[in-house]
Amino acid sequence: MAEFRDLLFALQEPKELMAGIDRSSPAAGPWALFDQAVAAQRDGRDGQAAQCLRQVFELGGETRTWLWAWNGLRALGVAPSEDLVGQVWGVVVEVPMPGGLDTLAAYADGSARYINQSGKVLVWDLPPPNPLHPHFEALFPAAHELVTQWPAARPEKPPAGHVGITLLTPEGPRFATAALGDSEVSGPAAAVFSAAALMLQALVAESEKQGAPAAQNIQPAADPDLIAFKTGSGDARWQALGRIAERGSSAVLAIVPDMLSCLDGADGTLKLLIMSAFSGLGPGGIAALQAATSHPDARVRQWAGTMLAQLKNQT
């Protein structure tokens, strides 16, 4: 789980990041651009590498891909423009517990990750507005107040009795610790810690409401096709789904919870495209949906049942 924790800080340069990517299928979306940047830099084409990394921002998508792109750009000698200086794109709060670290990471795109001291995790990828949105609106302004006070430094595990706070910015991480007394923090970090604590409570409560386990194992290795489906658009998204579908029904079933983040608030066309993709899987796709009707997440059960009913009406 150490590898997954490291990825929450998004400190890796593209070469290190891509070395840990699953290569069972071709890279897509921002991962393809990172691949191209690594190859260009290896060949001494720094200008081309920087151009590839800048294109990552044009794709939108996950905040961490932007942070990874900036890691690569800074390594090439490119500094953030004045309008980016002082922006906070992510906040990671860590508290030592008897069984290990509790780690909460929140990002400007509205996503969050929580690693319990036991090593189990919760993943929040629902786009705003959602029940956690007010907590993001409280956390990030508080973090912005600290960005000029926190020193530029890579995060370390906080010592006992302290909380570690890392601000993730285009200029690199800013890190400091604050004394933790009676479950509270005083001084400049108090507002950030308080907002993070309330966000964590809401995250756990919402996860339990939606039927997800209080903490669940996940694999730290990134799946480029799944990421391309979640962050891409147009043909790129459906090509990624097609590659996942080729792996068989078990692979499709494994991404059902992640697909929910794309379905929530989606228009009818997007839902129809996803249904068509499942329909194209034939018996394997139907089997995946039928298995999903007994998934522990109530949203997955409801969604799979609706999909089966609609697919039945199409035939």
Mean pLDDT across every amino acid position: 77
Sequence of secondary-structure elements: HHHHHEEEEHEEEHHHHHHH
Distance between the termini: 45 Å
List the uncertain runs: 213-222, 264-273, 279-284
Largest sheet: 7 strands, antiparallel
The tally of helices reads 13
Helix content: 40-55%
Kindly report the spatial arrangement of strands forming the biggest sheet. 4-3-2-1-5-6-7
- Sum up the overall morphology in one term: globular
> How many structural domains are formed by the residues?
3
Counted beta strands: 7
Query: What's the alpha carbon Rg, rounded to whole Å?
Result: 20 Å
Q: Beta fraction of the residues?
A: 5-15%
Structural class of the secondary elements?
alpha+beta
Q: Helices and strands in order, then pairings?
A:
Layout: H1 2-8, H2 14-19, H3 30-42, H4 46-58, H5 63-75, E1 90-97, E2 100-107, E3 112-115, E4 121-124, H6 133-146, E5 162-169, E6 172-181, E7 184-185, H7 190-209, H8 224-231, H9 234-246, H10 249-263, H11 268-280, H12 283-292, H13 298-314
Antiparallel strand pairs: 1-2, 1-5, 2-3, 3-4, 5-6, 6-7
Structure in words:
This protein has 315 residues and is α+β, with helices and mostly antiparallel strands. Helices cover 51% and strands 14% of the residues. Strands 4-3-2-1-5-6-7 form a seven-stranded antiparallel beta sheet. Helix 4 packs antiparallel against helix 5, helix 6 runs antiparallel to helix 7 and helix 9 packs parallel to helix 11. The longest helix has 20 residues. 35% of the residues are buried.
